[in-house]
Design brief:
This protein is mainly α and 300 residues long. It is built from 13 helices and no strands.
């Protein structure tokens, strides 16, 4: 595909370069030889330059991460589908975005070249969200494959994001996963104890005029009410704030203010609902990390 077709495919947006080449090729295939393969023919949201540029850059880098370990995992596809479902406004846009991803996966992507283009053309807040989603797709199966992590770290460096910030982003996923797992185990254990207690009391109720059955029900209810979401670990909390456990109280406060500013959802307000939601989740994790450290140190 010639440069004129590539520029036409991008529809005048600033993407161009290697991303434009990949996107243009995909559009050409999807529109089956259309002489004027414009992006607007595929996505009704193409008039929002920030949003569509972010979406095309992210889809390209997502495809690169999915290629990193030599196979496309179902959990990775599910993660991307969830992103597409929230990021693209209409069902037609969603189908086209998924088809574009499939076309990208058939190509040989040079992630370093793509990252270099993103580094020049995207602001730092949008870059951080790109890394957030790339870590999300890599960790969607429960753990980052070494090839995937090495690639994401390389992209992170090219985008001018520190390794400290990368591990902060990664820690928000692992901390959330650990709390959900702990909550699930705690809940199951509590219900198990509740059931056991009811059975025991039920067997004695024949000699206590049914009072044991009533007591067992009450105990079970109280047991279930005590199930609460476990706290974040201190290790995760310090990693999310990007500081060592030896940091002073003032350094903790400063780190919190810095991270809260970096990941405030207002910075990505032009990128669509899904990106705003993910940024808000990261923001909440930062608040949770700060609260966890304050509680452990008795900081007022």
């Amino acid at each position: 595909m010639g440069i004129a077709s590539i520029l036409g495919a991008i529809g005048g947006l600033f993407i161009g370069g290697p991303i434009g080449g990949i996107v243009g090729y995909c559009i050409g295939k999807m529109l089956d030889g259309d002489s004027d393969p414009k992006l607007e023919k595929l996505f009704s949201s193409a008039n929002n330059k920030d949003q569509i540029s972010f979406q095309m850059s992210l889809l390209t880098l997502m495809a690169a991460v999915m290629q990193a370990n030599g196979q496309t995992k179902r959990c990775e596809l599910d993660y991307v589908k969830e992103y597409i479902r929230k990021a693209f406004a209409t069902e037609e846009d969603q189908r086209n975005a998924l088809q574009m991803l499939k076309e990208m996966l058939e190509q040989k992507i040079n992630p370093e070249e793509v990252a270099q283009q993103v580094a020049k053309q995207m602001n730092i807040y949008h870059k951080r969200e790109l890394i957030h989603f790339l870590v999300g797709i890599g960790i969607s199966d429960g753990d980052l494959d070494s090839n995937e992590e090495n690639l994401i770290l390389k992209i992170t460096k090219i985008l001018g994001i520190s390794s400290t910030e990368y591990y902060s982003i990664k820690a928000t996923f692992t901390a959330k996963s650990q709390r959900q797992s702990s909550y699930s185990n705690q809940s199951s254990s509590s219900y198990s104890r509740s059931g056991s207690g009811s059975s025991s009391r039920g067997s004695s109720s024949s000699s206590s005029s049914g009072r044991g059955s009533s007591s067992g029900s009450s105990s079970g209810s109280k047991s279930r009410s005590r199930v609460t979401s476990p706290s974040m670990s201190l290790t995760s909390a310090y990693t999310i704030l990007g500081i060592a456990s030896t940091a002073t109280d003032e350094q903790v406060r400063k780190a919190y203010r810095s991270m809260a500013n970096k990941y405030h959802p207002d910075h990505v307000a032009t990128l669509g609902e899904k990106v705003i939601m993910e940024s808000a989740e990261k923001f909440k994790q930062i608040q949770k990390a700060y609260d966890t450290i304050k509680s452990s140190r008795n900081i007022k």
